[in-house]
Amino acid sequence: MKFNKAIILPIMMVTSISTLTGCSQKINYKQFSDIFVDCSNTEQNSYYFETQYGYNVYYEDCDSYIFNEIKKLQPVKRFTATDVTQKHFVYNLVHSVKTNNSDYYERYRSQMFFYINGSIVVNDYGYGVLDSYNYFTMSADDAASFFKMAEDKFDANDNAIQQDRDSTKTDKSIDAFLNALTNQETIIGNVSKNGYSSINDYETFTDDGALLRTLKNVEYNYFATEECEKYILEDKNLLFYNFAKEDIGNEIKQAWFLTLENNYRYVRVYNMMERDSLNRPNIAYVNVYSISKEAGVTIYNEAKKQLG
């Protein structure tokens, strides 16, 4: 993450670029709207509030809400001094531009700092761009409205995530999962042959019904509902249930599956969402359950029997 450390230094600038020429240059935005050139993929953008102690919550702008609100602003190009240690809003804007004599795209970034007194500092950096600081100012009233919008968006994000978490806890529970599989014609799984959590140790099986019955007879104690973004799962699991072998470590095709951790004590039911309520791609909410080690060993041994 790149942070503003010298916002008051005088710098030399040139005009904004839409094609990178191979040599690094500084960018001068003549007006605020110039910043949004070559920024079509807003899912690459991100935002957060920052204080002198850092930041705690970070979001990608997958629904373009903040991007569209920033584009509505009409600040003037003017430097206004501010206390950079006070709480401020940061928006990271990604530009994708063609390189010279090529169809290949490179990226540079505009990191935008919004302060409550109306000061806006824009630092551009990345491929083909030297650190370039541009300064804008909006009215105190506009700044207050902007900060309220951003705070409200964070509250809305929290509520959306909690709704996804709550619906996963109830609608995608272990009981709902096992009941749904009762009527499923084929259940594919992968189990470690030798008790190792290694991608090369898994073998695929088709459950003949015995493993499903075993899973239904286990006592599960709800532990938590977690959120995750990456699905490289083979590092700590002995069993994948309702899950195809070729999916391990690659794109996950099943939206709903179960894992048994290699300590035999935790079962996880994954609810893969193509898009969550914030429009974020490939998000999973995971119900975590604790079980007795004896139950875990029984599940694992029954899974190995399915290999024949």
Radius of gyration: 25 Å
Number of distinct beta strands: 16
* Percent strand: 25-35%
How many strands, what sense, and barrel or not for the largest sheet?
7 strands, mixed
Content-based structural category: alpha+beta
Strand/helix succession = EEEEEHEEEEHHEEHEEEEEH
Q: Determine the fraction of residues in helical runs and give it as a percent range.
A: 10-25%
Distance between the termini: 51 Å
Low-confidence stretches: 1-16
- Principal-axes geometry comes out as elongated
Number of helices: 5
Overall average pLDDT:
86
Short description:
With 308 residues, this protein is an alpha+beta fold. The protein is built from five helices and 16 strands.
Describe this structure in words.
With 308 residues, the protein is of the alpha+beta class. It is 22% helix and 33% strand. The protein has five helices and 16 strands. Strands 2, 4, 5, 6, 7, 8 and 9 form a seven-stranded mixed sheet that branches. The protein has a seven-stranded antiparallel sheet with strand order 11-10-13-14-15-16-12, with helices on one face. The longest helix has 32 residues. The protein is elongated. The protein starts with 13 loop residues before the first strand and ends with a helix.
